[in-house]
Design goal:
There is one protein chain. With 161 residues, the protein is an alpha+beta fold. The chain has 2 domains: 1-60; 65-158, Rieske [2Fe-2S] iron-sulphur domain (Rieske Iron-sulfur Protein, 3-layer Sandwich), CATH 2.102.10.10. It is 34% helix and 29% strand. It is built from 1 helix and 11 strands, in the order αβββββββββββ. The chain has one helix spanning 2-55, and strands at residues 65-68, 77-82, 85-91, 97-101, 112-114, 119-122, 127-130, 135-137, 146-147, 149-152, 155-158. A 4-stranded antiparallel beta sheet has the order 2-3-4-9, with no helix packed on it. A 4-stranded antiparallel beta sheet has the order 5-6-7-8, with no helix packed on it.
């Protein structure tokens, strides 16, 4: 009789363990399925939002930025942030203004204006751009992005189309 109790105890213990194991796997699997579904929904949502912003009229345009004309320093330039991107307004020798993005067209590094040499320098790969934003040396495939600019009532408006 003692032997039979031991057998019953062993079978009930192993049956209980497998039951717990199955419920653990089921709940873990359910959790992973739920996380996977959530990640897929977030991914698709961001994809559709990106498509909407790309295709919607005016979806990718930034609002104009106003800079007081007196902010342009004695060296003839002023750096700023526009839509999270660094930019620069420069005054030419003839007094005209131009604005550029300070993001390199190669790997999106931030370029620096070197007023003594009258050129932009990208430290990532030693790229050099002239004062008009054109590539002089290095790997960038295209010139710096030029932003539209207007002067009205002693204010510089950047981003006006």
């Amino acid at each position: 009789m003692n032997l039979r109790i031991k057998e019953d105890l062993m079978t009930s213990t192993s049956a209980g363990a497998s039951s717990k194991e199955v419920s653990f796997i089921t709940s873990r699997r359910g959790l992973l399925k739920g996380l996977g579904g959530f990640m897929a929904a977030v991914g698709l949502g961001s994809l559709f939002y990106g498509l909407y912003r790309f295709l919607a009229p005016g979806g990718g345009s930034l609002p104009s930025l106003e800079i007081p004309l007196n902010k342009i320093n004695a060296e003839g330039f002023y750096t700023f942030q526009h839509g999270g991107l660094p930019g620069i307004v420069m005054q030419d020798e003839d007094g005209s203004l131009q604005a550029f993005s300070l993001v390199c067209t190669h790997l999106a590094c931030t370029v620096a204006w070197k007023p003594e040499k009258k050129e932009f320098y990208c430290p990532c790969h030693d790229a050099i751009f002239d004062a008009q934003g054109r590539v002089l040396s290095g790997p960038p495939p295209s010139p710096l992005e030029r932003w539209n600019i207007q002067v009205k009532n002693d204010k510089v408006l950047i981003g006006i189309v």
